[in-house]
Amino acid sequence: MRTILITGCSSGIGYHAAHHLKSLGWRVFATCRSEEDVTRLSAEGLESLRLDYEDPASIEAAWTEVMARTDGTLDALFNNGAYAIPALIEDLPVAALRQHFEANLFGWHDLTQRATRVMREQGHGRIVQCSSVLGFMTTKFRGSYSATKHALEALTTALRLEMRGTGVHVSLIQPGPIRTDFRLNSRKQFDRWIDWQSSPQSDRYTKLTQRLHADTTKPDAFELGPEAVTEKLLRALEDRNPKARYPVTKVTVFTALALRFLPARLSEWMMAKG
User: Fold this and answer.
1) Rounded to whole angstroms, how far apart are CA atoms 189 and 142?
2) By Cβ atoms counted within 10 A, which residue in 30, 119, 182, 212 is the most buried?
3) Which residues pair with residue 32 across a beta bridge?
């Protein structure tokens, strides 16, 4: 039975991936930030553990437990849990940016290093990182999130090059808009960190605050369900020669083409409109 550790499984992408892979016969270790979610997923039949990227001790404890249960082996790691802090860059506190990198990059790096060492020793493994369309472009109010994802793409590309010939394959998944609790989690971080009313550009926050606090389930344009990401995850796990990147949604594909073929001024104008 193949084994996989998946992070961010309380809802959305991680939740769907964990249950689907379990249904296909994988042994899934589904991790969450809160003990309450761990209890809920355990009741649903998953092997669930607490792992919070912002808490190094929880990473150590979860990894140690997984290694104990698998006799020190692991076939795949899917790094997934992340959040956004929507804000204009001039209003983003340094502490917020530091915390954001802890959650979206440094914790991932800690877990990835642990998995890499085990996979190198056993001679095989798959590491899949859930990036974003914002991993290769950015737009206003998304600078912090984009910075973490750009950094993730760079680290992942370097790791993939360094793992050539070891049997360890490394891939990125690049979703566009996916139906998850991402907006809700962004609102929590925005309310925690951003004093937008004191901003010299406070008037520019009107639409953002309305969107973040809107009580609506209306999907974004071109939005897909989390199953679209799981489909690409399976490709990254099972393709004989997995790709470096797996784009998800038309938004990701179109943006990549636009950045490649359009003049820089035109592509920036388009992103400024977003």
Assistant:
1) 13
2) 30
3) 50
Residues with catalytic function: 145
Residue 215 burial (CB count, 10 A): 4
* Contact between 85 and 13 (Cβ < 8 Å): no
Identify the CA nearest to 76 among candidates 123, 164, 6: 6
For the four alpha carbons of 6, 12, 15 and 18, in that order, the dihedral sign comes to negative
Amino acid at 177: P
pLDDT band at 221 (very low <50, low <70, confident <90, very high): confident
pLDDT (tens digit, 9 = 90+) per residue, 61-102? Answer: 999 999 999 999 999 999 999 999 999 999 999 999 999 999
